Amino acid sequence: MLQSLPTFVAAVALLSSSIVSAAPWRNLRTSNANPWADWEYEACTASKTRIRVDYNSMAPWERKLYTDAVKCLMAQPSQLDPSQYPAATSRYMDYAVIHVGRTQQVHLSGFFSTWHRYFLWLYETDLRHTCGYSGRFPYWDFAATASNPHNFPIFDGSEYSMSGDGLFVDTGPIQLGAELVIPHGSGGGCVTSGPFANMIAPLKFIDPKQLQTGVLPADAYAYNPVCLMRDLNAYVSQTYTNSAQLVAAAHADNASHFEYLLNGVIGSSSLGIHSGAHFSIGGQMNSIHVSAQDPIWYPLHTMIDKVYTSWQLNYPDRAQQMNGETGTALNTPPSAVVTLESVLPDWGYFQLNPIQLKELISTTGGPFCYQYDNVIA
């Protein structure tokens, strides 16, 4: 049920500092890559609060305003060293490359929800300051489209969509683990309709099982140009991203239970809402590492942030709870347990300054000043 949204140490620091100091993102091609990174936080007031909305609820002109801004970011030059990051072909792809570099620390770890919350905010800020976007920031309500994603404006393939399905290629079922096989969807090939038709995705596919190794493949940043692919999958969306799943997460007993409902257990029959949304899209989205190449990644993860925000608002006493996980995926390699005092892995050149997790707990505190149009209650 939906209702109106109300208005509303040291060990980990050393670990995060070592990650930051080892980060290669400081080698920029321009000196003003992120002119707003050092802004001081300002108090969030009602008049300043931005409202995030469902993409399908936006008027066609506002949807196009958003996708035009994304395409603008795709047209901006990369700020990363091309000799080190050949796949960083544009400023838009810089986000995807940085996401690859942080994947082993910010997935299946205590940093997942807050690191991605700030990553989305940086991306939104970039759309506004670099490309002049003046509209609202959208989420993809994948529960509302779970019956069949094709039937909604976000994937209808029109100029006002986020592009449609890929061309049909019979690639067969997907084996995700000994206990989990999902059927093929309705696409599998290149996306040829909508604003991102014939888009090139330069990062090679990385198997999600790579998370279990604790390291990236040696060629993780290699230039491997293929088309953007999708395989919209109504079976996956009906099974893993339906309204009942989201309501359950918004009412999780504690942070650990919330994390389980969100991310499931890798390699088991429990896919979780997050992975379910990824696999309902297919193509590059089937790789947790390189999925940020697909523009739908951002509305998808904004919806994940909405689920997280809803849980926090439904249970204010749990809003600052940690899930007991460490700062590395599956604790590989072993790392310290994440706390409110922990310093998060950085966000590449978009934000190198250290940020403690407690600064990113509220959507109307720290650097943030946004709410969602409704809460999952």
Automatic annotation (TrEMBL):
What is this protein's name?
Tyrosinase copper-binding domain-containing protein
Question: Record's Pfam families?
Answer: Tyrosinase
According to its UniProt entry, this protein's organism is Exophiala bonariae
**Which domain of life does the UniProt lineage start with?**
Eukaryota
Task: List keywords of the entry alphabetically.
Answer: Metal-binding, Oxidoreductase, Signal
Every copy of the Tyrosinase copper-binding domain together lies at 90-312
Output the InterPro entries linked to this UniProt entry.
Di-copper_centre_dom_sf, Tyrosinase/Hemocyanin, Tyrosinase_Cu-bd
In the UniProt record, the signal sequence range is 1-22
One GO molecular-function entry: oxidoreductase activity
